Amino acid sequence: MHKKILNDNRNWRLNKISGIEAEEGKYVSNNINQFYAEPEGYSFWFNLEESPRKKRSIYNIYHRKTDDLEFAAQIITQKNSKILYLGSLRQNRSIISRLWKACLDLSDEKIRSDGGFILQDLQDKERKACGNNRQRGKIALVIFRKLEYVEEHGKKGNSIIFRITGRHPPFSTLDDIISA
After folding, report:
1. C-alpha span between 47 and 61 (Å, rounded)
2. Rounded CA gap, 29 and 17, in Å?
3. Which of 62, 63, 127, 179 has its CA 20 to 30 A from that of 47?
């Protein structure tokens, strides 16, 4: 069963409340107060609001209540809401793990002299994990930035250049244990 919620900073307004009087003598509001179910078993972490070409979107980022490194994102647009499940950084083949490994590979490949990379580089490197859109890669980079695994390092045109900070997910892989 999905819980319907209305959260202060997770839902948004199309415009400010207008004081325009309707024909019946009532005030009209352009407020959008739609209810969207949160992903079951996840807790709200933070959100990202953006307005590409005036089409507003909100990305609500969640982590699983039982695994703080398992993520889901709810994408809210003017018309609908959808949830992308990214998996856990503890699972080797999850979307988020594959994108993290791609970030590490991009940093090692030194496409740019300082080890930086942009979203497009990430998508070119890991097409299967990104799917056929930019949203998974964008959400992963936002999560990695919040966890301080990557940092912004300037711009290339409209694109943000990211660099690995040296922080990593707080666990060891079998490869790390074997090589130690």
Report:
1. 6
2. 5
3. 127
